[in-house]
Amino acid sequence: MRPPVTPKERPTPEPTPARDGAPGSSSAGFPETASQSSSPSSSESSSAAHEHVTDLADLSPVRPGRSALAWPGLPLLTALALWAFAVRHTDVSRLDDYGLVTALHPAFWAGLVVLTAGFWFTVRDPRRPGAWAAAYVLGLLVFERATQAVLYPTPLYAWAWKHDAVIDHLLTAGGLQTAEQVGDMAVYDQWPGFFAAQAALVRLLGVESSAMFMAWWPLASSLMLLLPLLLIYRTFTEDRRLIWTAVWLFYVANWVGQDYFSPQSVAYALHVGVLAVVLRRFGRSAGRRGRPRQAVWTVVLTLLITAIVISHQLTPGMLAVCLLALCLSRRYRDWVPVVTTVVIFLAWCLTAALPFLSAAMPDMIRSVGDIGANVETGYGATPTGTGAIATSWAARLLSGSVLLLAAAGVLRQRVLRHRARPLLLIAAAPLPMFAASSYGSEMIFRVLLFMLPGAAFFAAAGILPKVRTLAAAEAAEAAEAAEATARAGYGRRPAPARGGRGRAGTWVPLAALLGGTLAFVPAYSGKDRINYFPPQEVALVRQLFGQAPPGSLVVAANRNYPLAYDSYGSVGHYWFLDDARSHVDRIVRDPAATLAADMAGVERSARAYFLLTQGQLANSEMNGQLTGAQLDRVRDAVAASPRFRLVAENGAGWLYELRQTGGAER
Prior knowledge:
Blueprint: H1 43-50, H2 73-88, H3 100-103, H4 106-123, H5 130-151, H6 158-173, H7 179-182, H8 186-190, H9 193-205, H10 217-234, H11 240-253, H12 263-281, H13 291-309, H14 315-326, H15 336-349, H16 354-367, H17 386-412, H18 414-419, H19 421-428, H20 433-436, H21 443-463, H22 470-489, H23 499-525, H24 528-531, H25 535-547, E1 553-556, E2 572-575, H26 581-589, H27 591-599, E3 608-613, H28 614-622, H29 628-640, E4 644-650, E5 653-658
Parallel strand pairs: 1-2, 1-3
Antiparallel strand pairs: 3-5, 4-5
């Protein structure tokens, strides 16, 4: 027979005053009373949606033991010990097309399995303090976000190095600059919030550049998301199993990579923070708290939105559609957040960002409705090779599985479907953006990212037992009691409680969590052959920019190398694989002559350099540009031509200079 619902699990049916921090909360932890939530389609669903609910009480009980208090720490410590052993015995000097997946020591995978199993058996036990679940989530972040920072001696990702160059230029120039001064890079001066803050941090820490700490940024930006996620989920339930499972799934499904050293990472954390403030402090119940308190939260909201608007182009649009979607729910029909976001966004676009937008607006308008641009394939946009294809499918299957679980949660959990309808609206709101712009063929990833807070919550509900209303729980208890009485009257033993259902409730969620957690690694780190730049490559590029006079030109295959934008205020860059395919074909047919002609326009006081590195080769091969053999022929032709002279080389690349006099072919 089902164990009786304890007073902690079964809230009193009388409504209680709102708790501080949860607008209009009932004693069960939900944000609204029956009169404030949206009406379901039928009277039965309406009744179920508006009743107080029990905790998730259908999980099979955990057997008590002597180590009841100490047990949760054992799997966690074991997993961390395996992680520490793995990172000490992992060699990243020779990555293949599977990136970090095949380079990791087997102890890493064993530790991840132990960590996931320990988390599930800890979080499902109501006797465990909530701090244990938090400890396991922090352990997950160590596995997910700290591994690369520990293993790689240099920061990952060419775009992170680009942002380091923007910060360095801001510190050197001493202020913002226009397109006449820095060309296309002026777009970063028109959204300077992140870069100005990082420049101040560099000065405050007294370090040489942001490269000193940006390898740890994925861990830091992930930690920034933890508090707002908890606040959002606690708005709709107090069951910590649902809350922490949702947080776990959020981090596991967040493979998109927005957490690197970028404006997007901070803007996204602020976006989730704004949603937390709106869900907990705004809505129809806000008026009962008094105007002074609401004015304070409006100021807080304004500051958060302003920080987003001045830092990133896309996030304010995503925030606006999410807040607008919330207004479809009667309990959050407060227009202050939406109007505040739109007004600040438009004010910035019509002033500081106007130079960029006036030039880019025609292309942006033409891209509206071009859904195919989000899924385009072809030259430079097709994963090539077994490793790249496997990584791409791992990411797709991970996202698809979480979305399917979320759909299952919406269908199965009738109570949550209505109680947490605002989260459902937030999850669906970014979908129209898929047709609004391709965002450099990345809109599909951004839509997935902004759907994730709501999708993770319902995905957790999809693998956990059904939430039941208080009336349904009491009816089930009465039925079970009557059945037990009838059996006792006939002298039969009561049937064992939930044997098969208990086993399924234990192992099916664990399998789902384990599959998603393991799939995260190839989805997130499977392209590390592209994203990792060894110290020799960093040293070679530093040597280039250390000797390049102002006005020089750097020619490379693509921009996938460290410091690719270094000294962009005084040194020009040309990546020939970004050019028209016809010109790329001419370079392949006659590399030395074509490249020499491309580089010949540099003034005599400056220099023209040809740079080819390990990172460029990896990016070209794995993204369907030129093969390694084709780029080798390009390099061999340049090396054999008297028009070029070798300046430097090491195990990670080659640097050539175009001769200005005396060595050109006639």
